[in-house]
Design a protein that fits this description.
The radius of gyration is 16 Å and the shape is globular. Helix content is 22%, strand content 41%. It is built from 3 helices and 6 strands, in the order ααββαββββ.
């Protein structure tokens, strides 16, 4: 394992989390490539022969299936004050851990897996925690990276939160 590569990836993910937590969302969106796929499939509970099919696949229903344009539009909408679910904005804390470099691919793309825990506080009484893992594909861009794909897998099969107005 190339510890220098791991460290650069870890530093990038830490920086990304800070941008989200500090509400620097325009800068956050700039970390994504123009051809990004930002996808959060549904997770269901399965038994018997259906075990292993808990996560929906591309083309099936998903919480998010976005591209750079839709992510940028969501960020711009938050700035209008018309996004009722995020007015005032949630306070979040993105914890990213267990970062693994899974695969080095063509053209320097790196497949990363990491665990996340997101604490969200909104208004006076809404407190929520999201947990799961992400699989990111990072494309080299100068001395840093661009996220060209993000798969977000929640641990919970039923999302009881009032909305998914935050970013993962």
């Amino acid at each position: 394992m190339d510890m220098g590569l791991w460290f650069r990836v870890q530093a990038f993910l830490t920086h990304e989390a800070r941008l989200m937590d500090d509400q620097h969302l325009e800068e956050w969106v700039a970390l994504f490539s123009d051809d990004v796929r930002y996808w959060m499939p549904l997770v269901t509970n399965r038994t018997g022969r259906d075990q292993g099919k808990e996560i929906s696949t591309y083309g099936q229903v998903a919480h998010f299936d976005e591209n750079k344009t839709s992510l940028s539009n969501r960020v711009r909408r938050l700035d209008t004050g018309m996004a009722w679910s995020e007015t005032p904005p949630s306070r979040t804390r993105h914890l990213v851990t267990n970062v693994e470099v899974m695969e080095l691919m063509d053209e320097g793309v790196v497949r990363i897996r990491s665990n996340f825990l997101i604490y969200r506080s909104h208004l006076e009484y809404d407190l929520e925690i999201f947990g799961g893992y992400r699989e990111d594909y990072l494309r080299p861009q100068g001395d840093s990276w661009l996220i060209c794909r993000r798969d977000i897998i929640l641990d919970q099969s039923v999302v009881t939160q009032k909305n998914l107005g935050i970013f993962f």
